[in-house]
Protein 1
Amino acid sequence: MPVSVFSVAADRLAAIPNMTVLVQAPLSGYTRFRIGGPAAVLCDTSDVEAFQSALQLAKSLGLPRMVIGGGTNLVVSDTGFEGIVLRFTGANILHYGKALRVESGAILQDIVDYSIQRALKGLETLTGIPGYLGGAVYGNAGAYGHSIQELVQLVWFTDGNQVETFNNAACQFHYRESIFKDQKDWIILSTQLGFRDGDAAELAKTAADIRTIRDAKYPPSMRCAGSIFKNVFFAELPGAVQGEVPAKVVREGKVPSAWFLEQVGAKGMQRGDIKVADYHANLIYNDGEGAAADLVVIIEELKKRVRERFGFELEEEVQFVGFEYSAEPA
Ligand SMILES: Cc1cc2nc3c(=O)[nH]c(=O)nc-3n(C[C@H](O)[C@H](O)[C@H](O)COP(=O)(O)OP(=O)(O)OC[C@H]3O[C@@H](n4cnc5c(N)ncnc54)[C@H](O)[C@@H]3O)c2cc1C
């Protein structure tokens, strides 16, 4: 039987010190949706040098590859990913005055908690956003009127060969976007976040209040990816649609996608074990043994309904892995 390129790759990756390598690893175990077929090879390390060596090797082999973090914003196909999936779980935090330099594999909530305990103000409204720091910077994660771009001072990233540093402007942040979404080969290794002085008790109260609201909307055990679609800038809507949107739903210049989805009857839709929450039209979850195929059908159906009713295209916030039409790394 011929030796597959992936078993050769797995052997070479496994020879890297401090690297854990799995073959045919079910990605459902690495996503919050609990959906997704296997990765041909999955490698995992908390060691930055090992991670860079693995990236370099994957690149030199010319095999499809991608990096994941906490898997909280991913929709992985039922057939999985025929390539190398890399995960970096390095989570060191260096504290300099009002700045933290944090490795990308740190859990965002741990950084929120760390900063609050040290009376560092800035991240408290992002409490409850799951996933790692690298994923948050990649997608400019945010909530309650703030996003991580407000804190990012420097980002260290690599294409596997060398490490480069970007300042905030070079990251080209905007709503749920950064340059790293366009340059999938640039992998974030660490980020320096700048804070302001705050009061630890006040910050903790703000975070706790937000956490209570968020936990009611997204129960911690819910298999989902948060919002499926990005919200929509009011100014970019067709004129006739602007006239239909009640002023009270517009927040920070954006109309929640949930408003449009609600108008087209999304709430409570179901296909197999995939359901649209009956209390939030932009929240789709896996209620058991849901399949990516059903999830994608629901997403497409919702986009079609909004297109036909309102004449514009909703854009997904979630990232697709292993699908024909997804933007995957070269
Ligand atoms: C219950 C729930 C609530 C949520 N609420 C919010 C919210 O309020 N606001 C919000 O913005 N998001 C929210 N999300 C979405 C998600 O949590 C964020 O997008 C999060 O920042 C993703 O981080 P992750 O580590 O899980 O990334 P993953 O899902 O693992 O990956 C997401 C993308 O980031 C890329 N990536 C990951 N790490 C790196 C890296 N080191 N370098 C380069 N690219 C990388 C991956 O290739 C992938 O394309 C929510 C999700 C859930 C499940």
Note: The longest strand covers residues 38-45.
Protein 2
Amino acid sequence: MNDVAERLRAAARMAHIEPFEVMEIQTLAREVEARGRDVVHLEIGEPDFRTPRPVVEAAKRALDSEPMFYTSALGLQPLREAIARVYAQRYRVEVPASRVIVTAGSSAALLLAFGVLLDPGDEVLLADPGYPCNRNFARTLGAVPRGVPVGAATRYQLTAELARRHWSPATRMVMVASPSNPTGTLVTPDEVASLAALTREKGAALLADEIYHGLTYGLDARTAAEAGDDVLVINSFSKYFQMTGWRLGWMLVPPELVRRIEVLAQNLFISPSTVAQHAALACFAPETIAILEERRAELDARRRFLVPALESLGFGVPVVPQGAFYVYADCSRLTPDSFAFARELLVEAGVAMTPGKDFGANEPERHVRIAYTQPIARLEEAVARIRRFLARKS
Ligand SMILES: Cc1ncc(COP(=O)(O)O)c(C=O)c1O
């Protein structure tokens, strides 16, 4: 068998794994920039802030003083303990450090959770619209993601009632994300408790993605860890702590799963990044938190500017986002096709946003996600460009 195309043919699973659309838009944006045009980047889920200085300094000190060997697959013990203290102090939930597992970003945590719980053919219920990689983690393992269409009536969140309605004999897991990407909405603690009760009744697992915790405006989110130690909770140093490129996250897992996840993590990752773990030890220091809280206030100011500005342009924002840094806007009054709209807006007006297609099959053509990851002056520029673009089209 010497034909290269045949020898390197794609595994069957690749037929079901779509490109991450936001990365495609970013590539197109770079091409537009290479042609000399300025682009306002509102596509990628990553704010313009750099990693806080105390965290960077901690990394530098560690590089000088610590051996950069593998750590335990579960993570550095002092970091696991520091994370456990956050749950006690910030959320008033007692979580033993033995249930905290440090991971290579929440992406690794999601893969590990799915990997130890889902067999081929098992179904996981998730909100649609939702974060696209979750579907593809499931598919990579041969499991089946079942998107449950959600809308403004449930603040774009899965409820126990919806989960019950979409339950099948193959359902093994329910997943929520709070605040959600792309909608920035939160699930209420009552709803988490109902979902936990439902998964117990049905013999399935509940997993809560809390990676945007810390980035909520006007309220502090409560953790799904409150609902019981059988709930898997996933979090990350990427978003609130602004460490996307360091690739570090964590998970809280039921005591029964610690060893199983350790074994899979040893095999898939050996250990999370050692330097990133030493850096993360500085994340909870008061001087780091002071920097991060200032940035949270800045993100809130951007949100308060952007939501009414988008509405004045003709976008609909049925539920005002309370967290993360996204507005999931209804663009159906402006275009029948959000995919073509996002591309035209980028090429003709120099504003990059993500079409709804990335987030599922629930009316993606009516929606775009706009990330307020740029300073207000740049958001003002984007709004002015969109206004001129729409005027030219009408
Ligand atoms: C909802 C959600 N979960 C998980 C991730 C993965 O983040 P990381 O692997 O950087 O922790 C992202 C990234 O944007 C996200 O939006």
Note: The chain has a mean pLDDT of 96.
